[in-house]
Amino acid sequence: MKHSQYINEISFDSMENDCGELIALLVSSIRTVKNNMKKNEELT
Predict the structure, then answer these.
(1) Separation between Cα atoms, residue 3 and residue 7, nearest integer Å
(2) Stretch 6-33: mean pLDDT, rounded?
(3) What is the pTM (predicted TM-score) of this model?
(4) Contact 2/9 with Cβ under 8 angstroms?
């Protein structure tokens, strides 16, 4: 989108930063779920 001039550099940088934060949140959530699943398996 940036290379096609559809959005400007500032908008691209903002969106790229937001996407990085979303990825970090998703990775953290997935790790938490996996850890909780492992703990529950150990208890049973």
Answers:
(1) 8
(2) 96
(3) 0.74
(4) yes
For residue 39, CA distances in Å to 12, 20, 34 come to 41, 29, 9
Range 2-22 average pLDDT: 92
Phi, psi of 7 (to 5 degrees): -130, 155
Which H helix or E strand runs over 6?
none
CB 2 within 8 A of CB 12: yes
8 Å CB contact between 7 and 1? yes
Task: Count CA within 13 A, CB hemisphere, residue 9.
Answer: 0
